[in-house]
Design brief:
- The chain folds into 2 domains: 82 residues, Orthogonal Bundle (Helicase, Ruva Protein, domain 3); 136 residues, 3-Layer(aba) Sandwich (Rossmann fold).
- The chain is globular.
- Helix content is 50%, strand content 10%.
- Helix 4 links the parallel strand 1 and strand 2.
- The chain is of the alpha/beta class and 219 residues long.
- It starts with 10 loop residues before the first helix and ends with a helix.
């Protein structure tokens, strides 16, 4: 019995699985968060992903990844850990297209100089297949990426928040840089149109990297 088959298990086994994930993350965040806080984040993250996740085979692994990222964000927002690089959050409605492409392209262009996340105000069950295809044409594999719900902790941890058609759904906090990128939604569009959207995002991402790295150099 592996940890990647919890959907076929009963409630008790799933709960035990989440407790094991909580124990691992409690060790990782020892001295930063109490075990009870870590466990709450794990169970909340599992519930949020289970509502939308289509590919349930890896729900345990995605839960651990999602909860860990949220805890890292919470630690930064509370000043428990310091971030040596700017943090950027891309937000669209479904987190299945534009924000996923932007995050992947920024990760490549930034070369470790910027930490990037993406999320959706109403996340889809999986990424748009056309988006996965056009990104693979650039050598970027998004097939294992998954849409993530927008949570307050990742917004608080971000230095730059870029919305794509869902600005009203994103909390506004002082001291952060907010931008809204008006871009077509790639959902149900032909590949050629999705490629054009990808290239528009790529141009904006390059400009963003240039802007942020200059700010970091001058600070």
């Amino acid at each position: 019995m592996t940890e990647h088959r919890e959907i076929s298990l009963g409630l008790q086994d799933t709960t035990e699985l989440l407790h094991r994930i909580s124990a691992r993350l409690s060790d990782r965040f020892a001295g930063v968060f109490a075990a009870e806080t870590v466990e709450r984040y794990v169970f909340e993250s599992y519930t949020a992903l289970a509502r939308t996740a289509k590919i349930t085979t890896y729900l345990a692994a995605t839960t651990e990844h999602f909860a860990s990222d949220r805890l890292n964000a919470l630690a930064k927002s509370k000043g428990a850990v310091a971030s040596a690089v700017p943090e950027v959050l891309f937000v669209c409605v479904q987190n299945a297209g534009r924000s996923q492409m932007a995050a992947a392209l920024l990760a490549v262009e930034a070369k470790g100089r910027i930490h990037v996340r993406s999320a959706g105000s109403l996340p889809e069950a999986e990424l748009d297949p056309a988006v996965v295809t056009v990104m693979s044409e650039m050598g970027l594999d998004l097939s294992r990426n998954y849409p993530k719900p927008l949570t307050d902790d990742v917004v608080r941890a971000s230095d730059v928040v870029i919305t794509m058609g869902c600005g009203d759904s994103c909390p506004i906090y002082p001291g952060k840089r907010y931008e809204d990128w008006e871009l077509p939604d790639p959902a149900e569009q032909p590949l050629e149109t999705v490629r054009e959207i990808r290239d528009q995002i790529h141009d904006r991402v390059k400009a963003l990297v240039d802007s942020l790295t200059k700010e970091t150099t001058h600070s």
